[in-house]
Amino acid sequence: MKKKQWQGWGPGEQAEQHYLVQPRALAGGGDVRHVSEFLRASGWRDKSKTGGPLFMESPDRTVRVAYDPYVLPGGWTIHGRADGASGEWSAHLGRQAPVEIVAGLTDALTRPRSAHAPNVWAPLQEQNWHTRFEGEHYVATSPDSTAWMQYRRNPDGTAMWWTGAQDKQGNGWTAHFTPNTPMHLVQAFSTELASPDPVMRPRGRVPHSAQIRTWSVSVKPSQLSTWQQARITAARAATWARNSARSTRPRTTARAHAAGDSTRTRR
Questions:
Q1: Which pLDDT tens digit goes with each residue over 182-237?
Q2: Residues 6 or more apart from 107 whose CB is under 8 A from it?
Q3: CA 141 to chain CA mean position, Å
């Protein structure tokens, strides 16, 4: 029996071969637009130069996200400016860091912090990662030993978050975060790092590694566009909701101060 074709596909639209890749940490970099389009839909400014590396800035100009594949070692740089609550911080991720895992951190930059205290190790432990002390370092390793996350304390007193993935052939990536990187961002990153869900890569973009598992799938371009647009639409909706809440918030504090000043003047 022939499968009935979904009528939503465009006329003459041909399916393209893609692959689901697992574990996601070894899937390769992926499409940078997975990160950049979400940030743009969340109100971030795209300050990239034509033909140059990606460079985006948060609406309040306190955080910058850059991706430069044209230099060695290249990759992602995320920099946060010092403010009243925390000091300056930065994160650096290699070019082969999967965009889905990078987006764990960058998506979190667009959302308010949770009221709950962050726990970087909880998402890893929930996925049965092995956590332990190794000297001065606290380490988590994935069940297949291809990915890790560490909080490192060096002999000179410095510390940092160090993470990454590597197969037996030495292919992979590393990343490090300064110790004052906001913990909720590191937790958002570790959540995506530990996720068991596979990620999708087009034919020709799947790394050659004995440590990965792949499943071939046929995908229509319209399907890919729909999935990508759903992510962008969600970002726009969340941004609109936050902006609306700010604009309708009553200014009771300002009025109270004004009333107090008026009373003192009449005296």
A1: 999 999 999 999 999 999 999 999 999 999 999 999 999 999 999 999 999 999 99
A2: 38, 188
A3: 20
CB 75 within 8 A of CB 93: yes
Residue 45's CB: how many other CB atoms inside 10 A? 14
| C-alpha distances in Å from residue 173, one per residue of 4, 245, 259 | 43, 40, 59
Residues 196 and 146 sit within 8 Å (Cβ to Cβ) = no
> What is the side-by-side order of every strand in the sheet holding 199-202?
199-202, 16-22, 213-219
Query: Residue 85's Cα: distance from chain center in Å?
Result: 22
Q: Would you kindly state where each structural domain of the chain is located, as residue ranges?
A: 16-112+119-237
> Cα–Cα distance between 181 and 155 in angstroms, integer?
21
* pTM of the entire predicted model: 0.85
Compute the chain's Rg from CA coordinates: 22
- 81 exposed, middle or buried (CB, 10 Å; 0-12, 13-18, 19+)? middle
* Helix (H) or strand (E) run with residue 162 in it: strand 159-166
Q: How far is CA 142 from the centre of its chain?
A: 19
Per-residue pLDDT at 242: 84
d(CA 219, CA 160): 41
Nearest partner of 179 among 164, 158, 165, judged by Cα: 158
Q: How far, in Å, CA of 89 to CA of 181, rounded?
A: 5
Residue 167: per-residue pLDDT: 96
CB 196 within 8 A of CB 127: yes
Once rounded to an integer, what is the mean pLDDT over residues 81-85? Answer: 78
